[in-house]
Amino acid sequence: MDFSSNGKYLATCADDRTVRIWSTKDFLQREHRSMRANVELDHATLVRFSPDCRAFIVWLANGDTLRVFKMTKREDGGYTFTANPEDFPKKHKAPIINIGIADTGKFIMTASSDTTILIWNLKGRVLSTINTNQMNNTHAAISPCSRMASVSKDGTWKLWDTDVEYKKQQDPYLLRTGCFEEASTMPCRLALSPDAQVLALASGSSVHLYNTRRGEKEECFEQVHGECIADLSFDITGRLLASCGDRAVRLFHNTPGHRAVVEEMQGLLKRASNESTRQRLQQQLSQAQEALRSLGALKK
């Protein structure tokens, strides 16, 4: 699954040969409507929106390659989905673990489980081949900001600041380390909130939320899917976390994220030097407290 960059849609793919586009404004309603794109003669295992939300790409399970779908808005507000006439050529020799589109929209990344990462242009030509020189790749992603999170088999998760000057041979800064006991039991999935305040970790069918400022676990949702969780993702506001793993997408309120904002605003208010700054910080604090109050999660 993947959230669109404008925050309006969530795309999910499944082995029923469809990609469904869901409206995020319906998430808290009883009814959830979706638009359907058919994947002819195959099914998608991965889906990613383009940055301008005018297209999406899928990885084809049987074809072992990429297919591009253009999204054309209709007068009634819906969309028409049209697949490009030709799929990308088959280049990978090992199974694919992830795909992504650069924020510029000019490049596509595909990573396989051997040591190969390919960079493509939008017409399906390979621009660069990257050999990671590891035993094998376990994950690869395109960064939307300057923060990174990782989790290891020994149960250690780490938060890094990768916004460094690589030309001066600076290394990423380790900001925080925490312990995830369930990491060694089965494959993990992780997601970092847009403000990097909350780290979501999934193992099996359970989701765990950590405060990255303190390194502490704040929430745990047990057995939320009938199968192992396949993907985790925060929406662009950071208020909701989505997970998928069976025939459903589960949505969770990011209460640790609201609590982190409360902690941060309270600290900044103590150091605020002028009234306009205090008013702005107080407004953000009040909004976060109100969100927690509405969820019944405000700590007294």
TrEMBL record:
Q: Name one GO cellular component term.
A: endoplasmic reticulum
Q: What keywords are assigned to this protein?
A: Coiled coil, Repeat, WD repeat
Please indicate which superkingdom the organism of origin belongs to: Eukaryota
Q: Where are the WD repeats?
A: 1-23, 89-123
The UniProt entry's GO biological process terms, in alphabetical order, are: endoplasmic reticulum unfolded protein response
| Alphabetized Gene3D superfamilies for the sequence | YVTN repeat-like/Quinoprotein amine dehydrogenase
The record, for Pfam families, names: WD40
List each coiled-coil range.
271-298
The protein in question is named Transducin beta-like protein 2 isoform X2
UniProt organism field: Leptonychotes weddellii
Upper classification of the source organism reads: Eukaryota, Metazoa, Chordata, Craniata, Vertebrata
